[in-house]
Structures are given as structure tokens and as C-alpha cells.
Amino acid sequence: MIRVKQLLRRRLNRSWSVDILLFLLLAGVAVFMSAPLVYTVNRAFMPLDEIFAFPPRFIVRNPTVQNFKDLLGIFSDSWVPFSRYVFNTFFIAIVGTVGHVIIASAAAYPLAKVKFPLRGLLFNIVVLSLMFTPYITQVPNYMTISWLGMINSYWAILIPVFGMTLGLYLMKQFMEQIPDALIEAAKIDGASEYRIFWTIVMPIVKPAWLTLIIFSLQNLWTNGSVTSHKYIYSEQLRTVDAVFGQIASGGIARTGPVAAVTLLMMLVPITVFIVTQSNIIQTMSSSGLKD
């Protein structure tokens, strides 16, 4: 209580000039960080003469939706319906994210709260695996998927996502902060391990799996073209990102549709991040445990 009073007194003694200076500093940082997003939105509605103008224009002067019309024209010429690409993208993103969160959480719970032989060794292996980039593991992953007979299927993308160790590490670190007394009290009341996991542990670590949802969804949404080119050869199984990548490779003639594609690809990750971020902040402020 004394500490709070000291902080309030120190806050009241700060001058208005310092407050204004801090506000201007934060406003400048916000403008700098939002500049790429603002430029992407304006570029998507620029006509071709403004896109190729020199010096480049940051704000559109004559907005138009011709870039989006050209994009629809490109998709109308394809023998695979655009709705099929959208279905593939959302199916892989949703199933991959949900599966990764559930598997990572279920594997992290015994590592964090159950004592068994070689537990420390297993966790050290998990930490060691974080040192390897996807470029190093892509050959073993391809060989494994090929041996399992999952090439050219949804599973070729979903299985590696389910086995990502970043989610396991994140969930394990959060679950370790849960008091053992809380779990022991639930066991005394007759709760099973599954009930403790779903009704006690998972609600408490909600900030962790909400953050994991952001990482997993962003990875699946933005890296779909890279992953699908490795494992998927059928055009009917490709994602929207893979198709947009093909459009971007069309050269200068498709500069307008590429600008529209860039905006469309940003909408879903940004929307999910904004919605989930508010939930994370609310959960962190109200999910603390009291002694």
C-alpha cells in the first residue's frame, strides 16, 4: 500500500511537458509502425499510373477497385473454383491450429506436473529442437511424410504442424506456474487427470494457448504456398496463398492484382490478432491465482 502511494505521488509530481513529450514520442512510434499497413491499403486501390509513378506515392489520389476486378478476372479463367482454394486454406488453418494447440497442451501437462523418469531429458530434447530452423528439417520431414504415404494430401501439411515443439515449450512454461496444491486439491475431490486438464489447467493457461493460436494461424496462413509446393501437387488441394504466389510471379502486368492480393492476405492475420490480443489482455488481468 505504501508502495502504491509512493508511485501515485511520483506520478502527480511529473510535469505536463513530460507527459506531452511521452505522448508525442509514442505517437511517432505508432505512426512509424503503422506506415507499412497504411501503404499496403492505399496501394491496393491505386490505379496503374499511380503505382508506377515516380517518386512513389504513399497516399492514393484517385482510388479505384480495378485491381480487385482484375484479380477476379484471373480467378474466373482458372479451371479450379476460387471457393475451393478458400476452403483448403481455412480447413488447413483451422484444423492445424486446433490440433496443434490440443496436442501441445496435452503433451505439456505431464512434462510440467507429472513426475516420471527421463522427464528432464525429454524436455531438453524439446528445447534442443527449437534451435533447428525449418530449412534444416525439411528433408527429414519430406522423407517421413513420404514413408507414411501422405504426399499430396492435407495430412502432409497438418502432421508437421501438429508436431511443432514451440507450442509444447510455451505451454509447459505456463503450466509450471500453476500451484501444485491446486491440482492436489482437485485430486482429493475426486477429479480425474483429464478433468483437471480440461477444467482447471486449460482455463488458467488461456493466455498461452491464445498466443499459440496467433503463432500457428499466422504460420499456416502466410506460409501455405511454401509448404504446399513441397508436399502437394494437385491443384485442387492448393491454398489461397499458393495461388496468390503464382499470380505474383506473372510479372509487371499483374502489379495491380498483386497489390490487391497483398491486402487480402493481410486481412485475416490482422483480424485474428486484434481479436485475440484483446482476449489475452483481459485474461492476463483477471486470471491470476490468489493464495
A few lines on this structure:
With 291 residues, this protein is mainly alpha-helical. Helices cover 75% and strands 0% of the residues.
Give structural attributes.
transport; MetI-like fold; transmembrane; 75% helix; Carbohydrate ABC transporter membrane protein 2 (CUT1 family); membrane; mainly alpha; cell membrane; disordered C terminus
Count every beta strand, where a strand is a DSSP E run of 2 or more residues: 0
- Approximate shape: globular
Mean pLDDT: 79
Overall helicity: over 70%
Q: What gyration radius follows from the Cα positions, in whole Å?
A: 24 Å
- Count of helical segments? 15
Percent strand:
under 5%
Number of domains: 2
CATH class of the largest domain: Mainly Alpha
* CATH architecture classification name of the largest domain: Orthogonal Bundle
Q: Sketch the major β-sheet.
A: none
From the helix content, strand content and strand pairing, which structural class follows? mainly alpha
Instruction: Please trace the helix and strand order, writing H or E for each element.
Output: HHHHHHHHHHHHHHH
CATH homologous superfamily placement of the largest domain:
MetI-like
CATH topology of the largest domain: MetI-like fold
Note poorly predicted spans. Answer: 286-291
Distance between the termini: 18 Å
Pfam family, one: BPD_transp_1
Organism: Cohnella phaseoli
Membrane topology: Multi-pass membrane protein
Keywords: Cell membrane, Membrane, Transmembrane, Transmembrane helix, Transport
